[in-house]
Every structure is written in C-alpha cells, then in structure tokens.
Amino acid sequence: MLRLEFPPYIHPPSVPHSRKTPLCLGRIPVPDRQSTATHCPYCALQCGTHLRHSDGVTTVQPSDFPTNQGGLCTKGWTAPSLLDTASRLRSPLVRGPDGELAPSDWDTALDVVSDRIARIRDEHGPDAVGVFGGGGLTNEKAYLLGKFARVALGTSQIDYNGRFCMSSAAVAGTAAFGVDRGLPFPVTDLGQAETILLAGANPAETMPPLMRHLSRAKLIVIDPRRTRTAESAALHLQPVPGTDLALALGLLHLTVTEGLLDKDYLAERTTGFEDAWERALSWWPERVERVTGVPVAEQREAVHMLGAAERAYVLTGRGAEQHSKGTDTVAAFIDLALALGLPGREGSGYGCLTGQSNGQGGRELGQKADQLPGYRSITDPEARARIAEVWGVAPEALPGPGRSAYELFDALGTAGGPRALLVFDSNPAVSAPRSDRVTERLASLDLLVVADFVPSETAQLADVVLPVTQWAEEEGTMTNLEGRVLRRRRLLSPPPEVRSDLDILHGLAVRLGEPGHRFPTEPREVFAELRRATMGGKADYSGITYDRLDAGEALHWPCPLLPESRAPHPGTPRLFLDRFAHPDGRARFAAVDHRAPAETTDDAYPLYATTGRVLAQYQTGAQTRRVPELNEAVPEPFVEIHPDTAERAGLRHDDRAAVISARGRTVARVRLDGSLRTDTVFLPFHFPGDGRANLITNTVLDPQSKMPEFKVCAVRIEPISEPA
Ligand SMILES: Nc1nc2c(c(=O)[nH]1)N[C@H]1C(S)=C(S)[C@@H](COP(=O)(O)OP(=O)(O)OC[C@H]3O[C@@H](n4cnc5c(=O)[nH]c(N)nc54)[C@H](O)[C@@H]3O)O[C@H]1N2
Ligand SMILES: Nc1nc2c(c(=O)[nH]1)N[C@H]1C(S)=C(S)[C@@H](COP(=O)(O)OP(=O)(O)OC[C@H]3O[C@@H](n4cnc5c(=O)[nH]c(N)nc54)[C@H](O)[C@@H]3O)O[C@H]1N2
Ligand code: SF4
Ligand SMILES: [Mo]
C-alpha cells in the first residue's frame, strides 16, 4: 500500500509546485488577473483554492472552503504543474495519409470532422455517430454536449464515464428516495456524527481532506483491504470482494433481531419494509459469515455501533457499487440505513461519495444515454416537450435512449453500431473494462475525434485531436459531491491555439448547419439556458446565478427560481428532512437478495482480483502520470498480494507478475501486504499498455445501472522473468 512521507493533507510539499514559464513555447503565460478563488480540478470534494500568478509562475494555496477547511491532497498541490506540461496539446492534430497525427489549423480540423460526420450520417443515419462525455466537464460543457448530440447530431448514441462511476448508486438512490444526489446533506454534517459506516470507500487516499470530517466519528469500514481508511477505523470488516450484498442483508437482519429497528420512523416515513425483511430473514449471521468471511461478532458490533448512535451515516463508494449487482448492493445498504431511521433526519443519513470533479453535475445535465437536463428522463413525454421547447426543436426530433457506456464501446464499428465517436473528457482505452477490446473497437472506427489537453491513450488512437483549455483557463460551474454548485474561475489565458470545449461544440454545430446562437461559447450564456432547461426538474438550477455564486452563497440544488416579489430560494443543503421525493413522500425499501459475483474462483483462476485507486494517481493517469512528483510516488502498475499467497505462486516482493483472468493478462510489480485477504489481490487501474488493470476486469453489466463488474473477477498470478 502507498505510504507517503508526509501526511497527505496537512503539509504543503517542500518544493513549491508551479506553472513554470514554458521554455518550449517561448511564451510567458498571460495572467488575466493576479489571483483568483477557484477549486481543484480533480475530485468531487472540489477543495477550495486560491490560485496566484506572479513572475511567470502559478501557485496554489488551499482556501478555507467547507469541504477542505484549508487542506489539500498532493494532487491538488501539484495541479498547476500540468498547465504547462511538456506534452500539453497546443494545436489540433489530424491524421494524414501516412497514418501519422500531424499539426493542423482549427478550420481544417473542424472541417475534416464535420465533413466526415456529415458523410457517415448521410450513409448510415444519425445513430452512426456517437458521443462520449465525462464527469470532469463543467456543468456548461456537459449540458451543451448533450444538446449537441441530440440536436446537432440527432443521435441517441451518447453516454459518459459516470456510467462507470456512480450509476449503481444513482439507480438505487432514485428508487429509494425519488431523487438521487450523492450526499443529500453538506459534507460538514459528517463532522458531528458518532458513527459512520463506509462501504467500499477509501477516502484517506481518494479524498484525503474528507478525513477531517470523519475524524470525530467511530468509523466502520467495509473493505477487503486494510486501507489507510480502514487503519483509522474503529471497526474494519474485511469481506470477500463481491459479497457486500450478503453483508448488508446480514446487518439488516441483525438490526431487527437485536431490537435496533426504528419502528416509528418505519411507520411514518417508509414503505416496503416487510418485503425487504422477507429476504433479509434468511441472512442470519452465521450464513453471512460463511459467504462473506466477516465474523458474526464483527457483524454484531457493527449494528450496535450504528444503532447506539444518536447521529449516524451509511456511505457507499465504488467498492460496493462497481459490481454486476451494484444497484442491489446499494439498495441493501439504503435498506439498512432506513431500518435504523437515518435518511432524512438531521445529523444522520445515507449518501454515496461521488468521484469526479463534476461527477454530480455531469450526471444530471443530460450526457447520460437515458437523460435530459434537470435529471429528466428522455422517455418522459412531458420532459421531452419541455426540453424541446428550450432547445427550439420539435419533441419528435429528440432521439430516444441510447446504449450505455460499455455497450456503446462494444458496438463501435460493428453492424448497426456507431462508425464515428467524439470523446470529450475520457480515456476509455484505459478506463473501460476489457480495454483491449475497447481499443480495438476504437481503432476500427471510420472517425475517432478526441478533445483533450494531453495526448491520452485514447487521443493517440484518434483521427482528429482537438486541444482544449484546462481548469485555470476557463470559467464555469461544477457541482460537488454534496450537490453544491461552485464557480470555476479563470486565472490565465490559454495557449494561443487552444480552444474551449464549448468553442469546439459551437464550431462543429455551425458546420453541421445549426444556427450559431443555439450553441453559445460563453459559459454564462450556457448557464442561463441550462437554468431554464432544469427549471421544474429534479435537479433544478433555475434560481442559481453566477452573481449569487460569486457573492459567496452556498447553493445546493434544487434551487428553483422564485417570483421576483419573493426572496431568492436559498438552495437545499439538506434533502428529505420533511419528505422524500416520491409522490407519497415516503422512502421505499427494496426487496433484494444476494447473488455471487458473475465470476467465482476455481482451479484455473483461484484468486479474486479487485481494482481501485492510490492517492498519487488520478483515474487513467493521463493527467497525474505527467506530474513528476506524483508519478515518482507511484510510477508503475503494481499488484498487492498477501505474502502467503505470493509464496505459493513463487513470487517475492518487487518481482514482476502476470495477473491473468479468462479475458486477458496484465503485468504488475508485486507488493506484499500481510493485511490483505489471502484470496484477494488488488491492482490500481491508473496505468496504460500492458499494465492496464482493465485487461483482466469483467465486462458483465449490472442489469439496472449497466455498471461493469470492475471490483471483482477471478484470476491467477504467475511470475514473469524481467526483460534482459
Ligand atoms: N487519488 C485518487 N483520488 C480519486 C480518484 C483517483 O483516481 N485517484 N478518482 C476519483 C473518482 S472518479 C472516484 S469514483 C472516487 C472513488 O473513490 P473510492 O470509492 O474510495 O475508490 P476505489 O479505490 O475505487 O474503491 C474504494 C475501495 O473499495 C475497495 N473494494 C474493492 N472491492 C470491494 C468489494 O467488493 N467490497 C467492498 N466493500 N470494497 C471493495 C477497494 O479495496 C478500495 O479500497 O475517487 C475519486 N478520487
Ligand atoms: N478497473 C477499474 N476501472 C475503472 C474504475 C475502477 O475503479 N477500476 N473506475 C471507473 C471510474 S469511477 C471512473 S470515473 C472512470 C474514469 O475514467 P476516464 O474518464 O476515462 O479517466 P480520466 O483519466 O479521468 O480521463 C479523462 C480524460 O479527459 C481529459 N480531460 C479532463 N478534463 C477535461 C475537459 O474539461 N475537457 C476535455 N475535453 N477533456 C478533459 C483528461 O486529460 C483525461 O485524458 O474509470 C472507471 N474505470
Ligand atoms: S481531495 Fe480531491 S479536490 Fe481536494 S485536493 Fe485532492 S484531488 Fe483535489
Ligand atoms: Mo469515478
């Protein structure tokens, strides 16, 4: 496991990190102002920062924003250095007849894209062009991307990387509460809790400053690994990967049998307990221990810690969610929280820790295959009519739901599948399951267009690469893990030949025959339209303005626009205090049952592999592998393995090993860890090429959320000899 020299979120690194004057460019970056208040570009905690520029150097300092309270992790501290990374894309690239990507001008690049799109569309219809977005896009970009796909391209084939992220929690949360917002309460509420259950989340590495809010509570951590988060827990339950559903059902069972059920809450605020209980009834503690490996005494301790607390939370992360039964697993944890009477009570609740910078906003503004802005369903006639009106098109002209992320990648270049794909803010050649197959599908396309600021592994496969602005060079809004809308502010002007994603969408839309005003390039203008589009939806942003945000108001959606005679709506930091969002105002228990992972171990593949993150690298590493300090901390793929398991496989610490599943093989450096389960190995997914964890992961999808089973598959591990 990763150990850094200094605590991850207290001290600044000894060397100041800076955006240095780029010698290669011979250009001193032009600051638009000396300093600005903004937020870190990486994760959903959206730590507040002060960015400053002087003497050609950009530096970052944490601000006293509620989510980070003056802390930053190493990624936040080093974020400015990516602005001028040597590999920054600085002009459009078009693949020439020689098969090489070569610099081009914007008109040529955009003409090539629009001409080929038009041709493909004429020949094969609008669904032959696909779009893939990301949870790192600002709200404005995510909104305009969805509109671009449905209006300018007329395609149903749009989805985004959030499908691989919180989609299971989103489905389960919507079913239980009628609306899904990652945390339906401010992060700071966690600071008053007595007990917090963290199911499959490792915030000590994935959101270090969040740990400040968890430090007063007794933590119960459910994780097959003894992570840094688990080390700080009062109780660590260490299940076999893929068995959380049985564990959650067992905890519900014990809540009832140990007399901890909140019957008044059940009667007043919920429906469906009986059906849920019918399933949980057969998950008695000894059976749960047999399936999950979690001792009965620990199960009992967990429910008593939760039941005894006046204020308690149940939180899920990707460890519980990224499974072929992720939706049911989250539903079972929500059932547990409901049985204890937590959701919708001040000082208690259930929440999912969203992941990417704008994972929340990205999930509700219309880049998901089945959604329109405002968290509206694309199959709901009323929602279609409303959005069509805002967009100035006929409702019938809006396409229906498209394929989910993996289904979309899998169909690329096949009969009936898209023949062109535009990627904004994702690197699926590394992040998608069976990334070898996905890479092959991407390569088979007639046209692959990637907008990025670095040559990601996916960009390297593209026919056209479009260089975009980075966070410190653009304005916009983001919605953090607590549904709070924040301002991203510009400090620097971008390199000369770099454009914003909004500019690109405008340029393409106009070339495809759209009136230019339909695709504004000014974030403020897009936001004004987005407010109208979300008005009356579940995620209502209509009462939020840049001016209110700039005045420092903390606005959590829903924040509807009120008549001028009334004071503006204050936003909704806490959802569900009076009622849940279903018509009857009640939360719904889900009747779910455990099932095994799609793939279980056998003689050929005797170990479980699970995947996840380390502090120093972000996602596919496209960004953080280019930050020297971060890459030096964790420079290469590794596999965590128990010493006994390693010995049986003939492996020692630091050996290179092949980890092999039924789908493929990945190569990683052995790291011995005596605290790991002996039946489980762990790999981070941050690395490209032969070291991609996604060469082995399982593409089986959750039937409801279409989430792939990133967190469990069966493998064997073998030594490989070092290349000479
Ligand atoms: N440093 C860093 N921070 C990040 C990111 C990053 O890439 N790097 N990414 C951001 C994003 S997009 C996201 S989504 C979040 C993710 O944040 P987390 O959910 O905290 O991250 P993961 O490491 O994917 O998974 C959490 C834990 O789940 C455990 N786990 C694996 N399998 C199982 C299982 O079957 N059951 C249970 N209970 N646990 C299991 C893993 O051991 C791991 O410790 O992090 C965000 N922050
Ligand atoms: N095995 C395994 N696989 C996983 C996971 C796992 O736990 N295990 N986790 C999944 C999860 S939770 C996630 S969120 C995904 C993440 O998967 P990806 O989204 O593919 O990962 P990133 O590295 O964040 O890729 C984002 C790319 O967009 C670029 N970019 C950043 N901001 C912008 C922008 O504003 N505009 C444009 N045009 N480009 C931008 C970055 O430089 C980078 O190249 O991976 C998933 N894959
Ligand atoms: S915790 Fe997340 S938002 Fe905060 S500094 Fe680290 S990466 Fe940035
Ligand atoms: Mo994520």
Automatic annotation (TrEMBL):
<dbReference type="Pfam" id="PF01568">
    <property type="entry name" value="Molydop_binding"/>
</dbReference>
<feature type="domain" description="4Fe-4S Mo/W bis-MGD-type">
    <location>
        <begin position="33"/>
        <end position="85"/>
    </location>
</feature>
<dbReference type="InterPro" id="IPR006657">
    <property type="entry name" value="MoPterin_dinucl-bd_dom"/>
</dbReference>
<keyword id="KW-0479">Metal-binding</keyword>
<dbReference type="InterPro" id="IPR050123">
    <property type="entry name" value="Prok_molybdopt-oxidoreductase"/>
</dbReference>
<keyword id="KW-0411">Iron-sulfur</keyword>
<dbReference type="Pfam" id="PF00384">
    <property type="entry name" value="Molybdopterin"/>
</dbReference>
<keyword id="KW-0004">4Fe-4S</keyword>
<keyword id="KW-0408">Iron</keyword>
<dbReference type="GO" id="GO:0046872">
    <property type="term" value="F:metal ion binding"/>
</dbReference>
<dbReference type="InterPro" id="IPR006963">
    <property type="entry name" value="Mopterin_OxRdtase_4Fe-4S_dom"/>
</dbReference>
<dbReference type="GO" id="GO:0043546">
    <property type="term" value="F:molybdopterin cofactor binding"/>
</dbReference>
<dbReference type="GO" id="GO:0022904">
    <property type="term" value="P:respiratory electron transport chain"/>
</dbReference>
<dbReference type="InterPro" id="IPR009010">
    <property type="entry name" value="Asp_de-COase-like_dom_sf"/>
</dbReference>
<dbReference type="Pfam" id="PF04879">
    <property type="entry name" value="Molybdop_Fe4S4"/>
</dbReference>
<protein>
    <submittedName>
        <fullName>Nitrite reductase</fullName>
    </submittedName>
</protein>
<dbReference type="GO" id="GO:0003954">
    <property type="term" value="F:NADH dehydrogenase activity"/>
</dbReference>
<dbReference type="GO" id="GO:0051539">
    <property type="term" value="F:4 iron, 4 sulfur cluster binding"/>
</dbReference>
<dbReference type="GO" id="GO:0016020">
    <property type="term" value="C:membrane"/>
</dbReference>
<dbReference type="InterPro" id="IPR006656">
    <property type="entry name" value="Mopterin_OxRdtase"/>
</dbReference>
